[in-house]
Model the fold of this input.
Amino acid sequence: MKLGVLISGRGSNLRSIIDAVQKDRLNAEIVAVLSNRSDVDGLSHAAAASIPCAVFPHGDFPDRKTFEDAIVAHLKDAGADTVALAGFDRIVTSTLLRAFPNRVVNIHPALLPAFKGLHAQKQALEHGSKITGVTVHFVDEEMDHGPIIAQAAVAIEDGDTESTLAARILREEHRLYPEALQALASGQLRLDGRTVHGGPQ
Done:
């Protein structure tokens, strides 16, 4: 699998994907890391692993389509066949999705369909939930909505804050995302309508 990774921040999930590739737990080559922000730690993770990086500041483009057109062209030139969103803070549209049909994947810090959007950990605490978690899913044109590949539950403990809960969720993200990508790389996954068959074992 030829993987392009889109980031906007610290890149901890990118780091977990790089580690999985280097340790032969993920049968993929990361051919490009793209960020819409130039001053983020995630780019240093890619550079340290000698992965080609590029920055596409979204403010430099007149609209979302031209922004995504540039990203798609770069990913295609790099040879990517799959796209992983790893803390990418822009909503993607049909421009990207049609260029990589059923090959754009995202990770979200909640058990979708619960707690979509930003601050999912805060939402879970404010709702009084006892359990939240992590979801890896195919991306479609609705936010945090596409077919689910894998999920992992995380208990909410008495006294949890948004930051303590986020830290435990992040540990599960780092485990689950490479496993889900490996299921995709190995051909274990089959998408039938909105139902995903197979996944991390």
Observations:
- The two ends are 19 Å apart (CA to CA).
